[in-house]
Sequence to fold (182 residues):
Amino acid sequence: MRASLVASALCALLCARSLHAQAEGVAEAFADGRYDLALEAAEGLSDPVLAAEWRFQVLHAAGDLPGALAAARAGLALSPQHPGLSQNAANVALTLGEGRLALEYCAAWQGALEASTDAAQRASGLERLARYRASAEELIALDAQARSATSRARAVAVALLTLAVVALLWLSRTPRTAARRP
Fold:
C-alpha cells in the first residue's frame, strides 16, 4: 500500500515536471512573438484545460478574437468552474459586441468565484465581474436601441416612399394647366 502511494506521488511529481517543461516551451514561443510555434506547443500539452488557456492567450494576443473565444469555450467545456477561462470568454464576448453571450460567461464566472476558497480572490473577482456584467447589460441595451432605431428608420423610409409614389400618381392625373406658347 505504501509503495503504491510513493509510486503515485512520484508519478504525479514527474507528470507535473513534464507539464511544466511543456508549458515553458509554449511560454518561450509566446514571449518571442512566435504565435505559430506557441500554438503548436499548446496543442502538445497533456493537460487539455491548460492547452485551452494557452490557445486562448496566443489567439487573443494574435488578434484572433473569435478563435480565442472558441478556445475559451473548449476549455470551459472541460472545466466549467474555471474562473480564468470564464473571465476571458466574457471579456472577448464583450469586445466582439456579444452582450448576451458575455452575460452567460459572467454567470459561469460567478459560479466559479463563489466556489473559490480564496476570499481575497473571490472579492476582487466579484468586483471585476460586476463591471463586466454592467458592460454586458449596457451593450444589450445599446443593441436594443439600435434595433429600435433601425425599425423606426425603416418605417419612416417606407412612409416617405409611399408619399412620393402617391404624389407622383396625383401629379400624373392632374390636368396640365401650363400656358401654351404661341
